[in-house]
């Protein structure tokens, strides 16, 4: 029996949220419609944040109200209880909440202390259980913080244990600034798996230092089976040329499928999504394997079928 | 004590040998001089092949005759006994010989049968022992052959065992067409390490499918400590835009150093080599991490010192 890798496609949220080019609701719907066709099991559709703070995500409620029918699980990022209420009202049943592992990142990012952020997360987790809403908790900057430097695995494990008390549907260890290396991933995820098991865990990597795919492999070696990725590798700081964003879905899919792990993602449909994204962004998008994959995707499929 | 990773820098050979732009002897000497300054422990300076067949490598004897003094080990590729004699005469004391793991690759590449190639390798190994010359044997297309498809690990292990009888200084398992994935690397290199130990083994990866750095990590996990790489990721087929060549030295160095493995390579000097290479090739060169590293190399050094 082929083992399954669950990919959450985040281009419509993490991919778009910091781009200088803002897409309209209709354009984001076109992206999501193309992602639905790939067969990817989870799609993050946007975030319920203030449109003043993040204009790129304005109208996520409109998108939520008219999502195409699919077997894929839709989710949205909610920054706080207000966002939770909005997402719930919009019919979203899987919410992502992000907590930074360091005091300074929480202060700089959302002007809350570490303690306040944890209280907020706990309040949302308790409330979500009453509502039957699934929560994916993201522990952000879990390897390194741009303000405080390296984050100790002991801190992450303690915070993870605290969050697990309120039973999130998933706990995602997030390398928000792309500073992890495969040895650090292997070591931290081994510990997390030992404490919490694989089913509840996920990983979220950025490709800043070109190690994201190696980090995904390290995560797989530790037993992780749930990964975030973004079609075309969209995401991250768009003002740094050559500095890549999220690990690209096509890179994760092709590596996993070639290794005999089933992602359920149709590669030609995914390449079509990247094409749609390139049109919408008016600039060529594509992960590290994009060029090769465009001309050779049959080889991956054949490998997998064999 | 920090563990050591031995990098053989192959840009001056594997990097240049298939480029449409041919460098002069003086230009190649400038590249090698800049590589010497990086502290990389091994530098492949070219190959002793027919200049009619590979004009990019013409004059390797002139380069060999005027190499800068350094602690680095120089080596050259020799295609056959004639090349061996030429390299020996030119003063090269470490020779690389390449044998393909499949019948068809040997036929198409050097018009010899698999059996003939092994006999040639054995003759060179016997002769080299008399001369006190170190031989690095490359087992090419060890994961997949462009003509015969996947190569079974059993075949590779059998061929490796046969070659080991004549005691090469190193046996390099080479993913010549960049078709390996980290699971296949891990599995094959585990077997190789179990049979031959880590000291004699090396790996050579191409980044065609964007998995080269993940493959290096998988090799490290299997115990491999010797890797080929090319400054700027130069190499491979230059006619396929976006299709990368050899795994980039800067990507391997930054990953290893961040994981606390000592490569002995000075990152700013390496980035200078990539700059030299860009000037010589008249097109921008650079590995996957190049942009980030150019602006942030201090972070890697700090990480390593910690």
TrEMBL record, chains A, B:
PROSITE patterns: PYR_CT. Keywords: Lyase, Metal-binding. The keyword rRNA processing does not apply. GO terms for molecular function: hydroxymethylglutaryl-CoA lyase activity; metal ion binding. It comes from Luminiphilus syltensis NOR5-1B. This is Hydroxymethylglutaryl-CoA lyase. InterPro entries: Aldolase_TIM, HMGL, PYR_CT. One of its GO terms (biological process) is L-leucine catabolic process. The keyword Coiled coil does not apply. Gene3D superfamilies: Aldolase class I. Its EC number is 4.1.3.4. Residues 5-271 form the Pyruvate carboxyltransferase domain. Belongs to the HMG-CoA lyase family. It is an enzyme of class 4 (lyase). CDD domains: DRE_TIM_HMGL.
């Amino acid at each position: 029996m082929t083992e399954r890798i669950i990919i959450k496609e985040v281009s419509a949220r993490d991919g778009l949220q910091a781009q200088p080019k803002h897409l309209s609701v209709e354009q984001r719907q076109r992206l999501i419609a193309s992602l639905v066709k790939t067969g990817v099991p989870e799609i993050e559709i946007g975030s319920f944040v203030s449109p003043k703070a993040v204009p790129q995500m304005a109208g996520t409620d409109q998108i939520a109200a008219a999502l195409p029918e699919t077997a894929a699980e839709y989710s949205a990022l909610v920054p706080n209880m207000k966002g939770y209420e909005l997402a719930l009202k919009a019919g979203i049943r899987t919410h992502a909440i992000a907590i930074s592992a360091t005091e300074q990142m929480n202060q700089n990012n959302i002007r809350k202390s570490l303690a306040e952020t944890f209280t907020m997360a706990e309040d949302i987790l308790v409330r979500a259980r009453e509502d039957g809403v699934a929560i994916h908790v993201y522990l952000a900057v879990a390897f390194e913080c741009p303000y405080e430097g390296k984050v100790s695995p002991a801190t992450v494990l303690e915070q993870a244990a605290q969050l697990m008390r309120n039973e999130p549907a998933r706990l995602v260890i997030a390398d928000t600034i792309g500073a992890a290396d495969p040895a650090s991933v292997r070591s931290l995820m081994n510990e997390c798996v030992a404490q919490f098991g694989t089913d509840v865990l996920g990983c979220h990597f950025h490709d800043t230092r070109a190690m994201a795919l190696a980090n995904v492999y390290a995560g797989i070696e530790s037993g992780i089976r749930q990964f975030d990725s973004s079609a075309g590798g969209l995401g991250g700081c768009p003002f740094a040329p050559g500095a890549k964003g999220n690990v690209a879905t096509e890179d994760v899919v092709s590596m996993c499928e070639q290794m005999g792990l089933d992602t359920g993602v149709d590669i030609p449909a995914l390449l079509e999504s990247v094409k749609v994204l390139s049109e919408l962004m008016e600039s060529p998008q594509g992960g590290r394997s994009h060029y090769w994959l465009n001309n050779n995707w049959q080889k991956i499929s054949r490998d997998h079928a064999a």
